[in-house]
UniProtKB/TrEMBL annotation:
<keyword id="KW-0472">Membrane</keyword>
<dbReference type="InterPro" id="IPR021765">
    <property type="entry name" value="UstYa-like"/>
</dbReference>
<feature type="region of interest" description="Disordered">
    <location>
        <begin position="1"/>
        <end position="20"/>
    </location>
</feature>
<keyword id="KW-0812">Transmembrane</keyword>
<protein>
    <recommendedName>
        <fullName>Tat pathway signal sequence</fullName>
    </recommendedName>
</protein>
<dbReference type="GO" id="GO:0043386">
    <property type="term" value="P:mycotoxin biosynthetic process"/>
</dbReference>
<keyword id="KW-1133">Transmembrane helix</keyword>
<feature type="transmembrane region" description="Helical">
    <location>
        <begin position="45"/>
        <end position="70"/>
    </location>
</feature>
<dbReference type="Pfam" id="PF11807">
    <property type="entry name" value="UstYa"/>
</dbReference>
<comment type="similarity">
    <text>Belongs to the ustYa family.</text>
</comment>
<feature type="compositionally biased region" description="Acidic residues">
    <location>
        <begin position="1"/>
        <end position="11"/>
    </location>
</feature>
Amino acid sequence: MHQKEDEEVPLNDDVYHAGSDSDDFNDKYDYAAAKRPRRGWRSCLGMTVSLLAIILVSGLTGAWISFAFLNMDQNCALHTTQWYVDIKYAFKEFDGHFMEENIYRKNASAEVDAAWEALGVDYRAGVISYEDGLASGLDSSFVQRNPKYGGGFLVNVEGLHHLHCLNLVRKSLYFNYDHYKAIGTHAFMNEGHAFQLHVTHCLDTIRQVLMCNVDTAVLGQVWATKEDPMAFPDFNTRHMCKNYDAVREWGEKLQAPPNDELPPDFLVIPTPEQIIPKIP
């Protein structure tokens, strides 16, 4: 049997030899670290410009996002309004009490009428400029104020008209109708079918408005009455709402003078082509 040292033979005995200092060994294994090439000034300039561009783009993007969030009210309003008003949004708690009546729900009276009228339900038509009218979708066939008195289009704020319609429906309820019929003003000057057309026009306008602005909030249910608990919807819900008072104030300022104060030539006389054949 061979000795152990005889079996352990280096792979390259000529090179791997203890104590060897041959020239061949030094030539084969004398390594020097490779030199890294220096970056030219053009390369440094390119990197600097790229870094500055990234910083600039990031800054502009952050500013744009911040601006968008700061002006979210106006961004939302652009999608839900056709006229510029300083719209703001805030949370409102709906008064949905089922068993307790607020002033708007009570039986007909002068006090109740005053509360509704304070909402702007009876505001007169207003006037906007000719340019603003065109931007709102009107054209020269719509009723205009005589240029002699400043020109422009006669308009009604739709949101105030919607409340006007709701007020008429309120007055037409069976427990209020006789009161307002006895007074005999506005729609209650009409009889029969004409009155019915006015009320149903208002009813269907409100339907369309509610469907156009359909609310996706949900009504939870609570346990009510301790004697005999039952599940009942809680209508006192929290909503994000527009600042109605700003819209009302805008509509108030738009108003033209009362009809009995208008000069006979206040309106532009229409041409035959501008008169439509029937009431729309």
